[in-house]
Amino acid sequence: MVAYLVRRVLQMILVVFISAIASFALLSLAPGGPLAGLRQTPATSRFYISAEDIARIRTKYDLDLTIPVRFTRWLIGVPRGPLVINGKEYFGDLVVGCRQPIEEEFLNDRGKYETRVTGCSEIVYLRDLTGRSASRGILLGDFGVSWRLLRDRPVSDLIVSRLPKTLQLIGLETLFSILIGVPLGIYSAVKQYSKFDYFFTSLAFMGSAMPTFFFGILMILAFSILPRNAGLPYLPPGLSESVRDYTIPLLGTITAGSASDRVLHLILPVSVLTLVNVAFWSRYIRSSMLEVLRQDYVRTARAKGLRENVVIMKHALRNGLIPFVTIVVFTLPGLFSGAIITESIFSWPGMGRLYLLALGDSDYPVAMAVFFIIAVLTVIATLLRDILYTVVDPRIRLK
Amino acid sequence: MSANMKVAELTGEEITIQERTPFQIVMMRFRKHRLAMAALVVITLIFMLTLFAPYLANFEVTEISVGDYFLPFGAVDEDTGRVHYLGTDNIGRDYFSRLIFAGRVSLTVALISVLISETTGVIIGAISGYYGGALDNVLMRFVEFMLTIPSLPLLLIISSMLLANEDLIPIPAIVLNTFGKIMLLNPRDTRSAVLIIMVLAGFGWLGSAQLMRGMVLQIKQQTFVEAARSLGASNTWIIFKHMIPNAMAPIIVSASLGLAGYVVAEAALAFLGFGIQDPVPTWGNMLSATQTFMMDKPWLPLVPGLPIFICSLSFNYIGDGLRDALDPRLKM
Amino acid sequence: MADNNKKPLLEIRNLKTYFYTEDGVVKAVDGVDLEVYPGEVLGLVGESGCGKSVTSLAIMRLISKPGKIVDGEIIFDGRDLVKLGEPELMKIRGNRISMIFQQPQSALNPVFRVADQIGEVLEVHQSLGKRAGDARAIELLKLVGMPDAESRAKSFPHELSGGQAQRVMIAMGLACVPDMLIADEPTTALDVTIQAQILNLIRDMREKFGSSVILITHDLGVIAEMAERVAVMYAGEIVEQADVIPLFQKPIHPYTKGLIGSIPVLGRVRDQLDVIPGSVPNLVNLPPGCRFAPRCQARKEYNLSICTEKRPALHDFEPGHKVRCWLYQDDEQHVAPLKAKKTAKEKK
After folding, report:
1. Which residues, 6 or more positions from B9, have their beta carbon under 8 angstroms from its beta carbon?
2. Quick one: CA torsion of B137, B140, B141, B142, rounded to 10 degrees?
3. Mind listing the pLDDT tens digit for each residue in C61-74?
4. Which of A138, B45, B85, C245 is the most buried (most CB within 10 A)?
């Protein structure tokens, strides 16, 4: 058991490390970032940007450093300067980047001009890093500073402000969809071939084919825009709370930011996610229960003279929930990554929308932080699943 | 053996009495699934519409009728007398024309993504399952991990990177020209469509590789593989002549379900702004654009939204019908 | 052993159990008559798919959708099980009639311990508590010859061998000392050496508890060894029923003859084993006359046309020996070529 856990944790570290490299590499390949749109302009321009300005910004965000150096600084916060042993510096002359690259324009083979770096006018050495501000590294929970969304503020500030909103949304949604979906799935399986089962499976089938973004828009139309235009009570279509007070027929005036305001704003996004996931969970549980219900041991349980609900709720369900329990842990990454599409439709200020904004705005430290959290949580969920397996299924042992 | 199993066993004997080719049996069973048949008709219609888009469209995709914004369904263009069957959008472009050209792009992207991802998945899965060992271990660990990561953040990060950095992956001109001709796009716009195909197929093969590997492991147990080997068949021969054909049924089902997935995924990316971008119409970016105006024009989102839903639902039904037809044991 | 003066414990009359599938109505059991006397071992034999298991599940009233008992009575201890409601049935299942299955390992619930699964029966039918149930479970395991019963009681089913799992099933079946035990192919899935042990165990238990046993199998060897009376099933109906010795020594139905002829006998050299040509008919579109007619050689020999036209009834050929065949039964325009008296003469 201990040996197993040690081995799994080592594996996890490896996977986390690889996904860190992968996400970092992907985003360092992409252009943009704080320099997007910044080009050296003539001194006469109203928005005069000198070469020195650009160099300063490059330095500030470590963009002057070579990718491996940037990566280790992003990951674990080193190097912060030359290696010092007994007061003596080592590797101080190591070239780690270029503060002022020489760029020239070339006509490429497709007839377009493109800029290529041809040299360097100001090399950065390892000793220059001394005293430069650096994060403690993403592995230690320091995600660095945001480039654009909240310029120069720690990424963790952004995450801390968004996380509760996502936890609220996804937490409620997961709770509701499981509480509704699991019993529906069980009932549908037990009543296989009944009218209810037929109706419900058709509905769940359509629900699972329905794209979330279209469903969200339909829900906004049906419960917000159309009733509002018709002067009926309606639900607010977006954001997590209102900016100013508003009046809803029958409900009266809602104070911005009050508890009722927040609840009203939660209803639509939570319903959309819940309905979509009820379709998923119920189908999942239904097929898992159908599989179990045709097993020999269920017949044995009936042959013993047990009541039908004991057969279902004890003998069948206990087995039918084995795959469920192990897949349910994978909602964990979602708790933090949010529901990107739903948050986007409802302008819900959660992690999913943050991720989208960060990608759209080339705020890579933010995007990388979110992605890294998702990857780490996925790895943790995998370990949790394997441990849970051994708890719920006596046939499986850790080895 | 439960009572249900008994039925399957008994009805299985029917085959010995009625002489039909396997294909006829599959067709017969598929025709029994009425919704799947209906879906097939619907999809064929949509395919026809997109196939004949150049002849059916009254307007160019990017043609702007100045001043004719948000015209209602069936409005007539005063200067030329052409009809805007589904009205116009916020800058005066004809909805119907854009919709059928968008369908052409969306369906092509989905089809090609499925072709690439299923082929890749089948080959990698077959090799992994057939040879086993360390290669299998590493491959399947990787696949499993990728499948557990929430897919949308991953798709977004990759497509945002690729779209922002168009020259990162060089795409041969012949590919661009061919796809451009299919989708009726200029090579520059085709590039973004091809990138999206790469992103979608790049993740789509994971599932079918896992499926294929499972099938191969099952088939490997069976004696005809032993027999083939004892007759001196090479590994490649066994994989391509025995493994892959025998595992085709679930792959075909997964491909038709994959089509639904890709139509939705492509639309989702475009909807979120990380897919094919505006001047090229796709159902996803058209839907995204309607969001701004749906306060006053609540019917607008339905125009591009319904085709996405209908395609997704139809491919799902077809997949369901195929599953019933190809592998009745899986029927729920 | 068939003492006809005794009152049968179980009496099945004209039982019909159909499965309503997409491909049509599968007549898995179509007019079965059968009786089981107290304390006897009745062998129910036939090819797979002939309706043996469905008959046994019908006795337990465990036929589930799309199957249905459409006609007939199953009279057990004076009550018709077909008409009983679920609450009464639950008092009978596992308590007065219990059943053991072909695949012992998959018949045990993988997530519960052995003792709990045995104890559950006692909990339901004898209101035994958890601790008393556990103690009784261990006693029962010892009784069925489970080695190291105390620790095995705490095992999960996957930790047992096939033979051990079947012992658990038997212990579970006998926990409430039932009047009748239905054993559906109890040894088919086991190793040959284990098979004998399990059969011996069933025989011992029958003697200890005095329960009747319905032993369902396709293995005539098992029947010969275990059963006192035998019913042969074919395509959803009983075709012959007799005490075990007459049946093996003098089978009369062509199908039974074929079955017995297909057993290789040690020490007897034959060029080839007798094989019944053809296969079991499709139970959706059954032949109009005798169900065995399409495969029957005797019908051709005697050139009978009635066999493909009219279904024969199960009738007494000799006291205690029933058969369903036109060779032995007259009809309005049909004279049976091998009626009972004739064969009696031939015997001399």
Report:
1. B1, C48, C49
2. 130
3. 998 878 889 999 99
4. A138
Confirm whether pTM is higher than 0.95. no
Cα separation, A269 vs A172, in Å, equals 10
Best mutation target among A297, A319, A396 (most C Cβ atoms within 10 Å) is A297
Assign 3-class secondary structure to B264-308.
Answer: HHHHHHHHHCCCCCCCCCCHHHHHHHHHHHCCCCCCCCHHHHHHH
**Does C158 sit within 8 Å of A304, measured CB to CB?**
no
A neighbours by CB contacts (3+ pairs under 8 Å): B, C
Q: Could you give the residue ranges of the DSSP H alpha helices within A61-154? A: 67-76
Across chain C, where does the E strand assignment appear? 10-21, 24-36, 41-45, 67-76, 79-80, 97-100, 180-184, 212-217, 229-234, 237-243, 315-318, 321-323
Task: Write down all domains in chain A, each with its CATH number in brackets.
Answer: 46-146 (no CATH), 157-392 (1.10.3720.10)
Closest approach of chain A CAs to the CA of C168, in angstroms? 12
Residue of A nearest to B149 (CA): A378
What structural domains does chain C harbor? 1-96+176-281 (3.40.50.300), 108-173 (no CATH)
Residues of C in contact with A299 (CB under 8 A): 57, 62, 101, 107
Within 8 A of C279 by CB-CB distance, chain B residues are 13, 16
What's the complex ipTM?
A: 0.86
Q: Where are the beta strands (DSSP E) in C67-179?
A: 67-76, 79-80, 97-100
Q: How confident is the model at residue B16 (pLDDT cuts 50, 70, 90)?
A: very low
Query: Under an 8 A CB cutoff, do C49 and B1 touch?
Result: no
Q: How far is B18 from chain A (nearest CA, A)?
A: 28
Best probe of the A interface among C64, C90, C111, by most A CBs < 10 A, is C111
Nearest CA in chain C to A315: C109
pLDDT, tens only, C215-246: 999 888 888 888 999 999 988 889 999 999 98
Question: Domains, chain B, ranges and CATH?
Answer: 22-70+101-326 (1.10.3720.10)
Tell me which residue in A296, A303, A306 faces C106 most closely, judged by beta carbons: A296
Report phi then psi at C76, rounded to 5: -120, 120
Which helix (H) or strand (E) segment is A254 a member of?
strand A252-254
Shortest CA gap A316–chain C (Å): 9
